[in-house]
Design goal:
Shape: globular
Distance between the termini: 21 Å
Radius of gyration: 15 Å
Helix content: 10-25%
Number of strands: 8
Largest sheet: 6 strands, antiparallel
Number of domains: 1
Protein backbone atom coordinates (compact mmCIF):
# COMPACT_ATOMS: atom_id res chain seq x y z
CA UNK A 1 0.00 0.00 0.00
CA UNK A 2 1.18 3.52 -0.83
CA UNK A 3 0.84 6.30 1.76
CA UNK A 4 -1.67 8.62 0.11
CA UNK A 5 -2.25 11.28 2.76
CA UNK A 6 -4.84 12.83 5.05
CA UNK A 7 -8.19 14.58 4.82
CA UNK A 8 -10.50 16.26 7.29
CA UNK A 9 -14.15 15.45 6.62
CA UNK A 10 -17.64 16.23 7.84
CA UNK A 11 -19.01 12.70 8.28
CA UNK A 12 -22.68 12.14 7.52
CA UNK A 13 -25.00 9.41 8.74
CA UNK A 14 -26.39 7.01 6.14
CA UNK A 15 -28.60 9.00 3.79
CA UNK A 16 -32.17 7.72 3.40
CA UNK A 17 -31.57 7.04 -0.30
CA UNK A 18 -28.88 4.43 0.51
CA UNK A 19 -30.85 1.25 1.07
CA UNK A 20 -28.58 -0.69 3.46
CA UNK A 21 -29.53 -0.69 7.14
CA UNK A 22 -26.11 -2.07 8.09
CA UNK A 23 -24.54 1.30 7.15
CA UNK A 24 -24.54 3.84 9.98
CA UNK A 25 -22.27 6.55 8.54
CA UNK A 26 -20.23 7.28 5.41
CA UNK A 27 -16.46 7.20 5.79
CA UNK A 28 -16.09 7.40 2.01
CA UNK A 29 -12.96 8.87 0.46
CA UNK A 30 -14.99 11.00 -1.94
CA UNK A 31 -16.29 14.35 -0.80
CA UNK A 32 -19.70 13.83 -2.41
CA UNK A 33 -21.56 13.03 0.84
CA UNK A 34 -19.08 13.25 3.72
CA UNK A 35 -17.63 16.55 2.60
CA UNK A 36 -13.95 17.43 2.67
CA UNK A 37 -13.19 20.38 4.93
CA UNK A 38 -10.27 21.47 2.76
CA UNK A 39 -11.52 22.70 -0.59
CA UNK A 40 -9.35 21.86 -3.60
CA UNK A 41 -10.24 25.08 -5.38
CA UNK A 42 -9.40 27.36 -2.44
CA UNK A 43 -6.36 25.51 -1.04
CA UNK A 44 -4.82 23.83 -4.07
CA UNK A 45 -1.25 24.46 -2.88
CA UNK A 46 -1.80 22.24 0.21
CA UNK A 47 -2.41 19.07 -1.79
CA UNK A 48 0.14 16.42 -2.67
CA UNK A 49 0.42 14.31 -5.84
CA UNK A 50 -2.51 12.12 -4.72
CA UNK A 51 -4.67 15.19 -3.94
CA UNK A 52 -4.48 14.67 -0.19
CA UNK A 53 -2.75 16.50 2.66
CA UNK A 54 0.75 15.35 3.64
CA UNK A 55 0.34 15.60 7.41
CA UNK A 56 -2.10 15.02 10.22
CA UNK A 57 -1.38 18.56 11.43
CA UNK A 58 -2.72 20.00 8.15
CA UNK A 59 -5.91 17.94 8.53
CA UNK A 60 -6.32 18.97 12.18
CA UNK A 61 -5.96 22.67 11.27
CA UNK A 62 -8.92 22.18 8.92
CA UNK A 63 -10.87 20.54 11.76
CA UNK A 64 -10.21 23.51 14.03
CA UNK A 65 -11.55 25.95 11.41
CA UNK A 66 -14.69 23.93 10.68
CA UNK A 67 -17.95 25.58 11.69
CA UNK A 68 -19.96 23.75 14.32
CA UNK A 69 -22.74 21.69 12.72
CA UNK A 70 -24.66 18.53 13.53
CA UNK A 71 -22.35 16.12 11.69
CA UNK A 72 -19.05 15.19 13.35
CA UNK A 73 -15.78 16.30 11.81
CA UNK A 74 -12.99 13.74 11.71
CA UNK A 75 -9.49 13.39 10.32
CA UNK A 76 -8.63 10.36 8.19
CA UNK A 77 -5.44 8.81 6.85
CA UNK A 78 -5.45 6.95 3.52
CA UNK A 79 -3.30 4.37 1.77
CA UNK A 80 -3.60 3.49 -1.89
CA UNK A 81 -3.38 0.04 -3.45
CA UNK A 82 -0.52 0.08 -5.99
CA UNK A 83 -2.66 -0.66 -9.05
CA UNK A 84 -5.89 0.71 -10.48
CA UNK A 85 -8.65 -1.16 -12.27
CA UNK A 86 -9.18 -0.08 -15.89
CA UNK A 87 -12.88 -0.83 -16.32
CA UNK A 88 -12.77 -0.27 -20.09
CA UNK A 89 -9.94 -2.73 -20.69
CA UNK A 90 -10.88 -5.10 -17.84
CA UNK A 91 -7.37 -5.18 -16.32
CA UNK A 92 -5.13 -3.86 -13.56
CA UNK A 93 -2.69 -1.02 -14.39
CA UNK A 94 0.05 0.87 -12.59
CA UNK A 95 -0.56 4.15 -10.76
CA UNK A 96 1.57 7.27 -10.78
CA UNK A 97 1.19 10.41 -8.73
CA UNK A 98 1.13 14.00 -9.98
CA UNK A 99 4.89 14.67 -9.97
CA UNK A 100 4.42 18.44 -9.80
CA UNK A 101 3.03 18.18 -6.26
CA UNK A 102 5.38 17.17 -3.45
CA UNK A 103 4.54 13.90 -1.70
CA UNK A 104 5.91 13.76 1.83
CA UNK A 105 3.22 11.86 3.72
CA UNK A 106 3.86 11.52 7.44
CA UNK A 107 2.90 8.04 8.63
CA UNK A 108 0.58 8.24 11.66
CA UNK A 109 1.07 6.33 14.88
CA UNK A 110 -1.62 3.71 15.56
CA UNK A 111 -4.26 4.57 12.96
CA UNK A 112 -7.39 2.38 13.05
CA UNK A 113 -8.23 0.60 9.81
CA UNK A 114 -11.95 1.16 9.13
CA UNK A 115 -12.07 -0.63 5.77
CA UNK A 116 -11.52 -0.17 2.04
CA UNK A 117 -13.25 2.18 -0.36
CA UNK A 118 -13.21 2.14 -4.16
CA UNK A 119 -13.12 5.53 -5.90
CA UNK A 120 -13.29 6.66 -9.48
CA UNK A 121 -10.38 8.74 -10.75
CA UNK A 122 -11.29 9.74 -14.31
CA UNK A 123 -9.58 13.14 -13.96
CA UNK A 124 -6.22 11.78 -12.80
CA UNK A 125 -5.22 11.51 -9.16
CA UNK A 126 -8.06 13.43 -7.54
CA UNK A 127 -10.50 10.96 -5.93
CA UNK A 128 -13.97 11.48 -7.33
CA UNK A 129 -16.99 9.32 -6.49
CA UNK A 130 -17.04 6.42 -4.07
CA UNK A 131 -18.54 3.47 -5.89
CA UNK A 132 -19.96 2.06 -2.65
CA UNK A 133 -21.92 5.10 -1.51
CA UNK A 134 -22.29 7.48 -4.49
CA UNK A 135 -23.22 4.67 -6.88
CA UNK A 136 -25.39 2.74 -4.38
CA UNK A 137 -23.23 -0.40 -4.69
CA UNK A 138 -23.31 -0.81 -0.90
CA UNK A 139 -26.88 -1.97 -1.48
CA UNK A 140 -25.69 -5.14 -3.25
CA UNK A 141 -22.28 -5.95 -1.73
CA UNK A 142 -21.35 -6.56 1.89
CA UNK A 143 -20.08 -3.40 3.60
CA UNK A 144 -19.49 -2.48 7.23
CA UNK A 145 -21.25 0.23 9.24
CA UNK A 146 -18.91 2.86 7.74
CA UNK A 147 -19.93 1.85 4.17
CA UNK A 148 -16.53 0.29 3.50
CA UNK A 149 -15.36 -3.16 2.43
CA UNK A 150 -13.72 -5.40 5.04
CA UNK A 151 -10.61 -6.47 3.09
CA UNK A 152 -8.35 -5.52 0.24
CA UNK A 153 -8.99 -8.94 -1.31
CA UNK A 154 -12.75 -8.33 -1.29
CA UNK A 155 -12.24 -5.01 -3.11
CA UNK A 156 -9.92 -6.55 -5.71
CA UNK A 157 -12.29 -9.46 -6.32
CA UNK A 158 -15.35 -7.24 -6.72
CA UNK A 159 -13.54 -5.11 -9.28
CA UNK A 160 -12.02 -7.94 -11.31
CA UNK A 161 -15.33 -9.89 -11.34
CA UNK A 162 -17.14 -6.91 -12.91
CA UNK A 163 -19.40 -6.07 -9.95
CA UNK A 164 -18.79 -2.34 -10.48
CA UNK A 165 -18.56 -2.35 -14.27
CA UNK A 166 -19.70 0.93 -15.81
CA UNK A 167 -21.09 2.54 -12.66
CA UNK A 168 -18.76 5.59 -12.84
CA UNK A 169 -16.10 6.75 -15.28
CA UNK A 170 -12.87 4.88 -14.42
CA UNK A 171 -10.24 3.96 -13.64
CA UNK A 172 -11.07 2.73 -10.14
CA UNK A 173 -8.69 2.81 -7.19
CA UNK A 174 -8.80 0.96 -3.88
CA UNK A 175 -8.12 3.09 -0.81
CA UNK A 176 -7.59 1.89 2.77
CA UNK A 177 -9.44 4.26 5.16
CA UNK A 178 -7.99 4.81 8.65
CA UNK A 179 -9.51 6.87 11.44
CA UNK A 180 -7.16 8.75 13.74
CA UNK A 181 -7.54 8.55 17.51
Amino acid sequence: MIPMGYMAKRVVDRPQWLNNDNVKRLYSVSGCNSHNLVCYEKSESLFNGYWMLNSRAEAERALERAPVEAEPVLAFYYELYGEQWNDSLNRWEGISADQERPIAVEIPRAPKLEGFDIVSCSLGNQPECSLLSCSHLAERVGVNECCLLATLEQAKTLLSCGQFHGCEPGPYRIVAVYSLG
